[in-house]
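User: Predict the structure for this protein chain, please.
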Amino acid sequence: MLARSLLASLLVAVLAAPALAWRFSYGAATANRVAAGQGTFPRVVVISTPAESPFRWVVSMPQRRLAAIDANGTLWIFEIAQTSLSIIGRYGDAASPDGPPVAVSLGEGRPGVVCVSREGLLLVWQDGALRAFDVGAPLSRLTFPVPVVLDGKGWDDLVAVAADGAVVLIGGLLSAPRVVARAEVRALPDARITLGSLDGSGELHALVLTDPTDRYPHGALGHKLEATSVAVIAVGSNALSIRGRYVVPEPAVLEDLIPMVLPIGEGRRPGVVVVKSAPRQGSSILVLGWRDAGLEFLAEGPVFGQKNRWVHVIGAADLSGDGIPELIAVNTPHLTGVLVAYNRRAALFLWRSSSRGLGGRNDGHSSSEALSSPISSWRMWTVTASSISWSPTGARSTSSSP
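Assistant: Here is the predicted structure, written as structure tokens:
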């Protein structure tokens, strides 16, 4: 029910406030999954559509559409009507079920979808046709390409994790996609690439978790390999270059898939947020900052004091209205599920408030994207709103009675 409710909230945002619709399974390109605002949904219509197997991934597209991948690897394209979901594309056993689809731009007014096949090919859907491309290197089937706009072009290029652990830049998406640059970083096979600018120059940075190890075999994310470093890669026209790397000291690991780029503390400068875990301490939130052309330690949250206790970071938002963002996380989502907000105080993150009874993931599944992924249902459920009131945080919101 929690998964269905959160999926419903996403679709309401798609219909009533397109700026809130995310084309990534982990929220915004920075991986911040907090949509700041307040409002109500007084009148809703529930829509569902059947499938042969559970839907694992759902993302939003322009033009009131959704892209989904089920457990069999079927790629679905839906169009949202007032009272129904119309299937406008269905491609059986085409995609890897272990990585989500993502919406891309293939030119002005030409939306598309990309994902990875079981064989590591790039799949591109547009205008009712699905095509497969060998881009010059097999892609990891456990993750997905991330779209980037370079040189003011009207279409996307892609940054992706290759099967051999390199991060690759794929150009030519409109005609013949191909790898045009590589960065040899030994990325996790299921690493999610996030985007941001860390140094204030406007240079686009891709962040990815790298250098796998098995020295902390907790398996909270569905496997026994965890990262020991996070790499920062500059993305330019036909070029990738490694700008920096932070290595966590032994015996700790980075028990995460997604390095988040979030506003941290006063001044709202971007920081890199990851989950650090160690055998005797369990997990804690680790925040890194860009200083002197490299990543450095900025702050760390409290540890659990017990191994195999994980924290799921959701994002950052100014919850108190003082202009200073709080970090929002779910502690032990597979156990008690405590939603916690943290404030930064110098090199520490301190508890501010909490709420119990939330779960952030299914234990043993390699997904830390969002509370609603994967969608463990054999039907596609959605909610549309005939009336919605939504306003930025701090503004007054009004609505009619249900």
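The mean pLDDT is 80.
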